[in-house]
Amino acid sequence: MRLTLHVWRQAGRDDTGSFETYQADGISESMSFLDMLDLVNEELAQEGKEPIAFDHDCREGICGSCGVMIDGVPHGPKSMTTACQVHMRSFKDGDEIWVEPWRATSFPVIRDLVVDRSPFDRIIEAGGYISVRTGSVPDANTTPISKGAVETAMDAAVCIGCGACVAACPNASAMLFTASKVAHLALLPQGQPERYDRVLKMVDVHDEEGFGNCTNHGACEVACPKGISVDYIAQLNRDLVRATLSFRPEKGTAE
Amino acid sequence: MSRTASLYHSTVGKKVLMAVTGLILFLFVIGHMLGNLKVFEGPESFNQYAEFLRTMGYPLIPRYGLIWVGRIFLLAAVGVHVYSAWQLWVRSRLARAEGYRKVKDLSFSYASRTMRWGGVLILLFVVYHILHLTTGQAHPDFVPGDVYRNFIVGFSNPLVVGFYVVAQVALGLHLYHGVWSMTQTLGASHPKYDRWRRSTSGALAIVVVVGFVIPPVAVLLGLLS
Ligand code: HEM
Ligand code: FES
After folding, report:
1. Pair (A54, A138) in one structural domain
2. Cα–Cα distance between B167 and B170 in angstroms, integer?
3. How far is the C-alpha of A10 from the C-alpha of A112, rounded, in Å?
4. Residue A253 lies inside a defined structural domain of this protein
């Protein structure tokens, strides 16, 4: 199959960047989208041109490194699928495809399709963890957790931090990411001691990083390759309001 | 910073303000819509109801006392609602300074995409509506106190009715997303009821639109005179 690609090229953070058009020839249906980009890059390299930079690692939909706007949709046309798992059979011969990096002021473009997602790391650093003593492995079943709680927590914990929620959100909000991290710990017994401090701090950093505000559009849920529900955002909001209204000492909370 | 102040400064806190003021306005809108339906009880009953609103609590409270308390309260709610919407709008624009060349809007609904401009339309409508039926400057033949007559004369013009209908549809869309969004913002979610949240807000929006549209359309069709 033969495709026309319009790819965002930007040499570095300070470069203005622009779209370049490439013809991708001899694409097989069973290639992944990233395999297709590899093929284009090989040709570019042979012509002595700079290959297209894009993030990738596992190529099996679990690491969250990949992720670009493919024809206006984060991770491309296939729902609940990362860009590395989208196969070229999702496209037709002769298609014209626009490939762009995530666009958010908080995610500056580093090069071509690669953006700086370190704001996510800082949101996690603010509270996306539990403080426990390390040591020997605890005995199985010392902390019983109901099946329902485990499943709801897991449905939030599947977040791979790819940033598609920010990319899809008309407000460039990272609420689905933040909410999935807040909710998965809030639903488990291990997450309880720091539950309210966590939500205060993580939302604080979310806002400081310059993400937009969630207006409950729901585009994030549609774009999420793991199908995480916006119901978790409601849970985050509830916890945040509770944390604010609670009479527990304010020490150790968000400054 | 105290927790309450930090909530206010957060994006979620501003949304909580919008949700609380939105709820106040929504409850007012329901009450107003039900009150309007009293027009079908005839001129006497309708005018009496209007007089009651002006004299609630009289003689303990002066004429127009409580109604002004209500007006100021609602005005404050509108002010907070619109100001927060503006602040968040600005913030969202900054959060995506550079847009996409090609982008598909994946939002759940047309209603969610039109909250901001729809809100502006509602605000303009409310200003016109007050000049039309409360103070009378935008009314062709306003008689202070004769609410029923002002109502009938005001809606005998199809253009006016048309604008009211458009505004009510805008309000309906705003509420379809807004009431759902409010449950989301206030964290009023529960796995048991989550699948009902959208349909309930849709049903409430339809009730509001239909309830508001019936009386003006009835005047136009000659069912009220
Ligand atoms: C009768 C009048 C109104 C009612 C009953 C109403 C009700 C609501 C409700 C219930 C919400 C949901 C709040 C939330 O997201 O949690 C909302 C959101 C919103 N309203 Fe209103 N509203 C009214 C007038 C207005 C006006 C006049 C404007 C603007 C000029 C406006 C702009 C907005 C915007 C932009 C949102 C979305 C907020 C967001 O999601 O960030 N509304 N409204
Ligand atoms: S490369 Fe790891 S998720 Fe796509």
Report:
1. no
2. 5
3. 5
4. no
Q: How far is the CA of A222 from the centre of ligand 1 (A)?
A: 23
For the purposes of burial, counting CB atoms within 10 Å of the CB of B44, is it exposed (0-12), middle (13-18) or buried (19 or more)?
exposed
Q: How high is the mean pLDDT of chain A?
A: 93
Residue of A57, A75, A87, A158 with the most ligand 2 atoms within 8 Å of its CB, for mutation: A57
Same domain, A69 and A126: no
- B2-96+103-220 maps to CATH 1.20.1300.10: yes
* C-alpha R_g of chain A: 20
Of A48, A80, A110, the last residue of a domain is: A110
> How many structural domains is chain A composed of?
2
User: With an 8 Å Cβ cutoff, are B88 and A213 in contact?
Assistant: yes
Domain containing residue A173: CATH number: 1.10.1060.10
Shortest distance between the Cα of A138 and any Cα of chain B, in A, equals 31
Q: Is the pLDDT of residue A253 over 60?
A: no
Q: Do A241 and B7 touch (CB under 8 A)?
A: yes
Asked whether the whole model's pTM tops 0.95, one would answer: no
Of A110, A140, A172, which one is at a domain's C-terminal end? Answer: A110
Size of interface A-B (CB pairs under 8 A): 156
In tens, the pLDDT along B137-174 reads 999 999 998 999 999 999 999 999 999 999 999 999 99
Q: Which spans in A6-117 are helix H?
A: 33-46
Its domain, for residue A157, covers 118-247
Burial readout B81-95 (b: 16 or more C-beta within 10 A, e: otherwise): bbebbeebbebbeeb
Is residue A210, in this structure, part of any structural domain at all? yes
Chain B CB contacts of A72 below 8 Å: 100, 102-104
The answer to whether the CB of A231 is under 6 A from ligand 2 is: no
* CB-CB neighbours of B59 under 10 Å: 7
Ligand 2 near A84 CB (within 6 A): yes
Of A19, A171, A241, the CB nearest to B101: A19
Say if residue A151 is in the same domain as residue A43.
Answer: no
Q: What is the pLDDT of residues A27-66, one digit of tens each?
A: 999 999 999 999 999 999 999 999 999 999 999 999 999 9
Which residues in chain B are contacts of A232 at CB distance < 8 A?
Answer: none
Q: So what's the ipTM on this one?
A: 0.89
- Do the domain assignments include residue A15? yes
